[in-house]
Design a protein that fits this description.
The complex is a heterotrimer of chains A (296), B (266) and C (323). Chain A is an all-alpha fold and 296 residues long. Chain A is built from eleven helices and two strands, in the order H-H-H-H-E-E-H-H-H-H-H-H-H. Chain A has a domain of 197 residues. In chain A, strands 1-2 form a two-stranded antiparallel ribbon. Chain A is globular, with a radius of gyration of 19 Å. Chain B contains eleven helices and ten strands. A six-stranded mixed sheet of chain B has the order 6-7-8-3-9-10, with helices on both faces. Chain B has a four-stranded antiparallel sheet with strand order 2-1-4-5, with helices on one face. In chain B, strand 9 and strand 10 form a beta hairpin. With 323 residues, chain C is an all-alpha fold. Chain C has one domain. In chain C, helix 2 crosses helix 11. Classes of the chains: A mainly alpha (296), B alpha/beta (266), C mainly alpha (323). At the B-C interface, helix 2, helix 3, helix 4 and helix 5 of B face helix 7, helix 8, helix 9 and helix 10 of C.
């Protein structure tokens, strides 16, 4: 493999990786607020892409308007999910909570299939089919959208958590919800907020990636899993680690294809899971995580 | 047996730190075979944490626990229980979905050997083992006086009897060391009397016991030795009467409301 | 004989009678094949029910274990000329080993890493089936998987398969009962109620969970092998993620922590699935409804009957009697 090829794979890897990273961040936010691994995370991504398709392609709305509306719509779905299915069960065993998120994911996927049909829908790239050339490495302009919006989202989130009252309150809930409650923070509002935020981030990921991958009702499970691989690599609960974990998965996956012998490209999707299983076997606390002590 | 030369339990320089908070600090003591060892001290002194370290729920930050001459620090909780350390919990931990008898049968777990395949085919060995465990459990139930409640759902019993279920469960494991964490907590005066009588009988069987208890009368009655813990450290280890007269102990309790003492004394 | 034991035997007899009645009432291949499907799904669901209800863990890769049994049987008989019974046993052992390797590290961890790990295994296995070249037959699969046979008697039609699959289901029910009424089963129920107290009774909770997980995988594998030897054909499609989900739904609907619950759930969901398929011939949209319907069923059951149909109904009945 030449250096140019290697760089090309790296660029593609970082791009899809940042989408996984956004999904991973979505997982982390809900996990930190509730201790739940939300299996419907992938459906947020899918719905982001599909709603964006309807607004941008079908209804010819301007790009920014379509993007903002689609993100807002999915955030609303996140809020509804929390309100209708999580809140009534919040004191149930964790296994029940996990299965309810699986149930919601199935429901959303089924609804998406009914509304948008089984075919994958094409979305045009935001800035046309142009590429930027850095030496001999082609960087599609859509890649820049993906990278730019990811960076913007991560930085924005950091600022939100560190410099706003609501952000700090959410962090307080994540660290110790009882203490936060004593300090007058409404934990259930914060949990709801975490679902909205998490859904919005995932929707954004789905929107920016759909011109590259097409928008389809059934891509959610795969994306969710790869995002989850990212959170495990980053260490469950560690936001920045999750984003980096996602990027690492993206790079490994694309390099994997690059180095794989002819005829084995079909194994691309298996790659991330092999990494996931290896991580679970070798270092479940993640590359950037620390071992937790278990208590009663 | 060579092990007989050692005290049953040796706790050496035990230390447990939670994220900067020192819960147990440099605690050392020994418990002789066949004696009842009391552990007292104000709330938050680190008594339950000490139990949790000895039974392997927490790994200690530093120090060792030696049982029968074997270092057990760092072993998982179930491995320590398998060596004959049984316990009860301050906040009841009965299996609420199971009958009283089944609760006690779980205590017998370490005496069973049959594997999964033998079990699903219910081979004669499994039947024989079941019979044996059931007899065992029934003995424990009779000892604590719950034989008439064997089939009742454990969660249907009042808290005082649930405490007895926990004790029966611990006894059914035929432990070499029994740890009782505030067995009288939340019991009525009458229930406490019944419990005291039961503890006397358990002690009379020669079982080694460590007991955390606020009820001073109970402690004075059954303990040969008492250790006083304050803010994670051992204040003194002595006979009950000497401990009661110790001004440092009184100082440690000062400011602490002592309803148990006053109530039981009056 | 205690009243409890009498009720147990009566329930078992009623179930056997219902199952035995179907071939007497109808010889329609359609109904008998649904009967076989219920049995196969039931075998998987009973295992998954033990895992969900007693170990408190969920596997989202049970379809993959089902597939491993099916493909294991197909590959061993077709490529290596293995006896079908032997192939079934070998596939079950191999699947159990794989489950063991996944279970040991993930079940030691606190939380639900098993769910994600099994989801990952499910997807890897699906890809292996698809990309396995001539070994797995790729997307089009492997045809001509031989039937199971005893001497010259082959289980080569729906009725015969029905008569093979259901006794296995009932055997499993007996196994589950034996397990739950024993030291190991009490250990599982104890873990379900309080892990900390279970460990203080010398129960190695991680080991017990691995044991149930492996058992559930072996059950799934056996069902998969029966499937392959029955339809004489395997392809990747039936063994993908949606079926794993459907299995979880079956268990949750019927009720995890009961012996009959998962079986009843399997029957209910299989019938709903088939009805939608039939309805789809008339209204094409009905076929797309199945996914959304399963989602709605899970959500409603968890919200309003979290212990499943069997426990849910019996506890309501108990409340009514008490009131």
């Amino acid at each position: 493999m030449s250096l140019a090829e290697l760089l090309q794979y790296l660029v593609t890897g970082v791009t899809v990786g940042s989408v996984y990273g956004l999904v991973a961040l979505g997982f982390t936010i809900i996990y930190n607020a509730t201790g739940i691994i939300n299996f419907a995370q992938g459906e947020f991504v899918v719905l982001g892409g599909l709603i964006f398709y309807s607004l941008y392609v079908a209804a010819h709305l301007p790009l920014v308007a379509a993007l903002v509306l689609a993100v807002a719509a999915v955030a609303l779905i996140g809020v509804l999910m929390e309100r209708l299915t999580i809140r009534p069960l919040i004191n149930s065993p964790v296994v029940t909570l996990i299965i309810i998120t699986v149930g919601v994911s199935v429901l959303l996927r089924g609804a998406a299939k009914l509304i948008w049909g089984p075919e994958a829908l094409p979305v045009p790239p935001f800035s046309g089919e142009h590429s930027l050339f850095v030496g001999s490495v082609a960087v599609h302009l859509q890649y820049l959208w993906v990278l730019g919006l990811t960076v913007l989202a991560v930085v924005g989130l950091r600022l939100f958590f560190d410099h706003t009252i609501v952000g700090k309150a959410m962090q307080a809930c994540a660290i110790n919800s009882e203490a936060a409650q004593l300090a007058g923070i409404s934990v259930s509002r914060m949990v709801q907020g975490s679902f909205a935020l998490s859904a919005a981030l995932s929707a954004l990921a789905g929107i920016v990636i759909c011109p590259i991958t097409l928008a389809s009702y059934d891509g959610g499970a795969l994306l969710a899993l790869k995002g989850f691989c990212g959170t495990i690599i980053g260490g469950l609960g560690n936001g920045l680690g999750a984003v980096m974990g996602g990027v690492i998965i993206g790079i490994l996956e694309k390099l994997g294809i690059g180095f794989a012998p002819q005829g084995y490209a079909g194994y691309q999707d298996a790659f991330a899971f092999v990494v996931l299983l290896l991580m679970l076997f070798i270092r479940p606390s993640g590359l950037f995580g620390r071992q937790r002590t278990e208590g009663i | 047996m060579q092990a007989e030369e050692y005290p049953l339990l040796q706790v050496r320089n035990l230390r447990k730190v939670f994220e900067g908070l020192v819960a147990v600090n440099n605690v050392s003591f020994e418990v002789e075979r066949g004696t009842v060892f009391g552990l007292i001290g104000p709330n938050g002194a680190g008594k339950t944490t000490l139990f949790n370290v000895i039974t392997g729920i927490y790994a200690p930050t530093d120090g060792t626990v030696v049982l029968n001459g074997e270092v057990i620090t760092g072993l998982p909780q179930d491995a320590i229980a398998a060596r004959g350390v049984a316990r009860t919990f301050q906040n009841l931990q009965i299996f609420h979905g199971m009958s009283v008898e089944d609760n006690v049968l779980v205590g017998c777990h370490r005496h069973g050997r049959c594997g999964l395949l033998a079990t699903i085919f219910r081979l004669p060995a499994v039947r024989a083992e079941e019979r044996q465990l059931r007899n065992h459990a029934m003995e424990a139930l009779q000892f604590v006086g719950l034989q008439d409640f064997a089939r009742a759902p454990a969660s249907s019993l009042p808290p005082g009897r649930q405490r007895l279920v926990e004790i029966a469960r611990a006894l059914a494991s035929e432990p070499c060391l029994l740890l009782l964490d505030e067995p009288a907590a939340g019991l009525t005066t009458h229930e406490t009397e019944v419990l005291g009588e039961l503890l006397q009988r358990i002690a009379a069987t020669g079982l080694t016991i460590i007991i955390i208890e606020h009820d001073m009368n109970l402690v004075m009655d059954i303990c040969a030795t008492v250790a006083v813990l304050d803010q994670g450290e051992v204040l003194t280890i002595d006979s009950p009467s000497a401990v009661q007269a110790d001004p440092r102990v009184i100082a440690a309790y000062l400011g602490e409301p002592q309803p148990e003492e006053g109530g039981a004394g009056g | 004989m205690s009243a409890e034991r009498k009720r147990e035997i009566l329930g078992f007899a009623v179930a056997v009678a219902i199952v035995a009645a179907l071939p007497v009432v109808t010889r329609s291949a359609y109904w008998l094949s649904i009967g076989v499907f219920i049995a196969l799904h039931g075998i998987v669901a009973i295992g998954l029910g033990l895992l969900l209800g007693y170990a408190g863990q969920v596997s989202l890769g049970q379809a993959a274990f089902y597939g491993m049994g099916a493909y294991g049987s197909a590959i061993l008989t077709l490529h290596l000329g293995c006896n079908p019974w032997l192939a079934m046993g070998a596939a079950a052992v191999a699947t159990g080993l794989i489950a063991y390797v996944i279970g040991v590290p993930t079940l030691k961890l606190h939380g639900h890493y098993l769910a994600m790990a099994t989801l990952g295994i499910g997807i890897i296995v699906r890809i292996l089936f698809n990309e396995g070249g001539h070994i797995t037959g790729g997307p089009s699969g492997l045809p001509a998987v031989p039937n199971l046979a005893i001497g010259g008697f082959a289980f080569d039609n729906d009725l015969r398969m029905y008569c093979l699959a259901w006794p296995i289901v009932f055997l499993q029910v007996v196994f589950s009962r034996n397990l739950l009424r024993s030291r190991l089963g009490r250990a599982l129920r104890a873990i379900h109620d309080s892990e900390i107290a279970a460990r203080s009774c010398a129960i190695n909770t991680a080991k017990a969970k691995v044991m149930v997980f492996v058992l559930s995988a072996v059950y799934a594998s056996v069902a998969g092998s029966l499937y392959a030897h029955w339809v004489n054909f395997v392809n990747p499609h039936p063994f993908s993620f949606p079926f794993s989900l459907e299995l979880v739904v079956m268990v949750m609907v019927g009720g995890a922590a009961s012996i009959w619950g998962p079986l009843i759930g399997a029957a209910a969901l299989t019938i709903i699935d088939q009805s939608l398929l039939q309805l789809g011939h008339v209204f094409p949209i009905a076929e797309d409804l199945d996914i959304v319907l399963f989602g709605i069923i899970v959500v409603l059951v968890l919200l309003f009957m979290p212990r499943g149909l069997v426990r849910g109904l019996s506890s309501q009945e108990a409340e009514r009697r008490a009131g």
